[in-house]
Design goal:
Layout (H helix, E strand, L loop, with lengths): L11 E5 L6 H9 L6 E3 L3 E2 L14 E2 L2 H9 L3 E7 L2 E6 H9 L3 E5 L2 H11 L3 E7 L3 H11 L4 H15 L7 E4 L3 H16 L8 H10 L6
Parallel strand pairs: 1-7, 1-8, 2-7, 3-4, 8-9
Antiparallel strand pairs: 3-6, 5-6
Bound molecules: guanosine-5'-monophosphate (5GP).
């Protein structure tokens, strides 16, 4: 981390993966560490809440009518139908965070990623998380034991389609060890924050640097 603060544009870090590849764990781990100063986008969804989930923390759980109203009023930055349910990212919080020069992390699918990239281009960084194997993916979904066997089968069938979207992403991680994946993610974040084009305050900083005497008083 640099001690000198240089003004820069905020960006959106998107994580996508098939269900069970560990993306939600990773997203929450990096978002809950204050050192990284990342705001987590809370999506709205029409999916049923899982027993371990908290309304307003993991998602805002809403019905189809409320979802359609948000979409109709252009209050969603992106939205998609995934595994038969609707999911969307509320626009307002994103505008607020980016406007303040901060970064935000999204846990969304490839359809939503395309929409966000179409709208915000340079201000989007995308990461795809792959499972080490499909057998491990099944094991993780079954171990989680929060979805019905039919839902698990549906998610596994969809994962074969989702995995093929890896080519659309900036970075690809194979998550066979959570600590390693977390470490890699922090590396991506650090590098992206240092990109010259994002650091809009650099020119002023360098001007100031060059205007200073190079002798020690
Ligand atoms: P789950 O039901 O397991 O929480 O999520 C299913 C899928 O929906 C995951 O791939 C997740 O990334 C994606 N998802 C969650 N929220 C959103 C969202 O707001 N927009 C889009 N496009 N996908 C989302």
């Amino acid at each position: 981390m640099q001690a000198t603060t240089i003004e820069r544009r905020g960006f959106i870090l998107i994580l996508s993966s098939p269900s069970g590849a560990g993306k939600t764990t990773l997203t929450r781990a990096v978002a809950s560490d204050p050192k990284w100063g990342l705001d987590l986008s809370i999506s709205v969804t029409t999916r049923q809440r899982r027993p371990s989930e908290i309304d307003g923390k993991h998602y805002n759980f809403i019905d189809r009518e409320a979802f359609d109203a948000l979409r109709g009023a252009d209050n969603l930055l992106e939205w998609a139908e995934v595994h038969g349910n609707f999911y969307g990212t509320p626009r307002r919080p994103v505008e607020k965070v980016l406007g303040a020069g901060r970064d935000m992390i999204f846990d969304i699918d490839y359809q939503g990623t395309r929409q966000v990239r179409g709208k915000l281009a340079e201000d989007v960084v995308t990461v795809f998380i792959l499972p080490p194997s499909l057998a491990e993916l099944r094991h993780r979904l079954e171990r989680r034991a929060e979805d019905s066997p039919e839902t698990i089968e549906k998610r596994l069938a969809n994962s074969r389609i989702e995995i093929q979207r890896w080519v659309e992403y900036d970075y690809v991680l194979v998550n066979d060890d959570l600590d390693d994946a977390f470490h890699a993610l922090k590396g991506i974040l650090t590098a992206e924050r240092l990109k010259r084009a994002r650091n809009t305050g650099l020119a002023d900083f360098v001007d100031g640097l060059l205007a200073e005497p190079d002798t020690i008083a």
